Amino acid sequence: MSADFTLNFRQLERYRFSNLFGGTVPELFTDEPPPLGEDSGPSPSQLLVAATANCLAASLLFAFGKFKQDVAPLSGEASCVIGRNEERRLRVESIAVTLQLGRPAATLTHVERVLSTFEDYCTVTQSVRQGIRVEVTVLDADGTRLK
């Protein structure tokens, strides 16, 4: 598990930033879509959705791995709803994540136990949920909805 970390960032131009995580992590460039930026990298909202989805995927893989279950290749889709709050400021209102296992559920063991607990271990999702609704769907390789 990763420990605390520090991010260093600097403005390159307009709304484009360089983000340095240190160590061997490559530099990440972020930007806002037009008309503010040039869409030359993911926006902070996109990173929030990606972080939520990727954390859930890693947590699901880890949970199945505890039972020696290989569900690769895991894939999915994440989306968000952006709306305005009472002060008319844009906010991420909700995030929806669909995770699809690489194997049919019928070939796996401990599915119910994994599905009932894996979200609890997702640091990002549980942190985000304190202010944003996060909906999670899990499908098996056949497209059968498991959660």
TrEMBL record:
Pfam families, A to Z: OsmC
InterPro entries: KH_dom-like_a/b (IPR015946), OsmC/Ohr_fam (IPR003718), OsmC/Ohrsf (IPR036102)
Stated name of the protein: OsmC family protein
Organism of origin: Crenobacter caeni
